[in-house]
Amino acid sequence: MNESNFRFYFENREQFTVEQTTALRRITFSSVLCATGDDIRLLPRHSFIVGNQSLIPCELIPVLDLEPWRE
């Protein structure tokens, strides 16, 4: 990642509070798929990891906690 793009990276201290960064770190691509997919019920906990992973219900995959953004 070059310097001009680094300012947009979510762990850059100037972008988010510590609490917001912690909430973002909990989210995986499986979290995004469960939240936005049509009728997706089971996914591996970490969708980008290749290998034999068990499928788990979306209810067990972390969701984005929006509390740190509440004003």
Automatic annotation (TrEMBL):
Gene3D superfamilies recorded for this chain? Haem peroxidase domain superfamily, animal type
Q: Where does it sit, as one GO cellular component term?
A: extracellular space
Keywords tagged on the record: Oxidoreductase, Peroxidase
Q: Which example biological process does GO assign this protein? A: response to oxidative stress
GO MF term (any one): heme binding
Asked whether the keyword Oxidoreductase is assigned, the reply is yes
PANTHER family listed in its UniProt record? OXIDASE/PEROXIDASE (PTHR11475), PEROXIDASE SKPO-1 (PTHR11475:SF22)
Task: Please give the name of this protein.
Answer: AraC family transcriptional regulator
Organism this protein belongs to: Anisakis simplex (Herring worm)
Taxonomic lineage per UniProt?
Eukaryota, Metazoa, Ecdysozoa, Nematoda, Chromadorea
